[in-house]
Amino acid sequence: MTKPPKPTKVQALALELLSKGGAFRSTRAFADNRVHSPEGSIAPATVSVLVRNGWATWGPEVSLKKPLDLTDAGRAVLPPQE
Fold first, then answer.
1. How far is 69 from 56, CA to CA, in rounded Å?
2. pLDDT tens readout for residues 8-65
3. In what order do the strands lie in the sheet with 35-37?
4. Residue 64: its pLDDT value, please?
5. What 3 state SS string does the chain have?
6. What global pTM score does this model have?
7. What pLDDT was estimated at residue 27?
8. Measured between alpha carbons, how far is 39 from 7 in angstroms, rounded to an integer?
9. C-beta atoms surrounding 12 within 10 Å
């Protein structure tokens, strides 16, 4: 039985960003694949790992924005808050 993966430091920071809500990717043709939030942005490679590991999931598109939401599995691996 393999252990579930632990997030790297960058992935943990991305999960913290998602826990604050409001993270989305623009679906406009000229936009990049970064996920943006009022607190910062997440690189496409990091987003890919978060989704692949089940820590985040894409929500339905709203007003040319596709939200990235934290899952219960993502909440479970969040670093403890100080």
1. 5
2. 999 999 999 999 988 998 877 666 788 999 889 999 999 999 999 999 999 998 888 8
3. 40-42, 35-37, 24-26, 65-70, 56-58
4. 82
5. CCCCCCCCHHHHHHHHHHHCCCCEEECCCCCCCCEEECCEEECHHHHHHHHHCCCEEECCCECCEEEEEECHHHHHCCCCCC
6. 0.86
7. 73
8. 20
9. 15
